[in-house]
Fold these 3 entries.
Entry 1:
Amino acid sequence: MRTFLISDNKDTWVGMRLCGVDGVIVHSRKEVLDQINLVFKDDSIGLLLLTEKIVDLAKDEVMEYKLKKAIPMIIEIPDRHGTTRSGDAISQYIRDSVGIKI
């Protein structure tokens, strides 16, 4: 299984390429959705990395994929500037996914 990155940032893309991870740089919501659809059609990709800004462009669709599709697993990563998420991002994810406040 391969890992694939969808990034909004050239530095993150270059860093992942140095680790052997293929990927693309996109900037619009349409490009994000098109790339995600291409990844889900490729059975060789087992892990999809998305930068936080990419997730923000298509938050509802990404959450739906996370909930309904097991492969590829979607992981949200910060870019080189660090995270923009609040300290309770995991609690918020659980609340959105399961509907339980912890």
Entry 2:
Amino acid sequence: MGKGMRAGKKPSMGGGSMQKQLQQMQAMQRKMEALQAEIEEKEMTTTAGGGAVTVTVNGKKEITSLQLKPEIVDPEDIEMLQDLIMVAVNEGIRQIEEMSNAEMSKLTGGLGIPGL
């Protein structure tokens, strides 16, 4: 037996402190879930080609709106239209991710939790 230990006694693990930490983590998890639900409801609208293509992306990273100005539709230059759509969609997704990361880091206070 180690120094200071008596037969039949279990070493103290600071159970009250661990319980408190567990409760704090559970509370943070609930806040994170609520924040994630709030983020999923938000939308970002981006444009490309000087407003010729407008895309709206929600917090779930789904396209909720795609608008094309008629003058941008040129059957002779489909590649340009495809590129403009990709630019607008990718920018919308980037902005949603940036906003989501910023909101989550406010909540976690820079705890360095992976995936946030």
Entry 3:
Amino acid sequence: MNNELVEYPSWWKRNWKWVVPVGGCLSLIVIFIILMGSIVWGVTSALEESQPYEYAIEKINQDEEIKRVLGSPIEKDGMIQGSYNYTNGKKSADMKIPVSGPNGSGTLFVEATGEDDDWTYNVIRVEITDDESINLLEEESDDF
């Protein structure tokens, strides 16, 4: 007997019963991860491009006390948490931004409200540790 004439089924015919469910589930998982990643990236980008974010980062890089504690330059060090709302010409921003410098790290808190292009900053504060906090708005009130 010679087995050379026996035709073996193709790889697809032998394995389709496990390839279809695994491939389908894996595809859905990959699509879900890509969708969630793009949502997170979009929201983070929108917060980073907001005026309160840019103003607060500029302000902490100009503050001598914060530069002494964290070092210079101070940059964002992680994902921004918070919200940015715009309704009928009124805006509000509430952000928690992890920051770091060469000497350490902390968390920058920004709360602001505004209309059109004008912003009023209620909070710009950097928490270095649980018991050390530097409020940048107190300095502004002393200057007036």
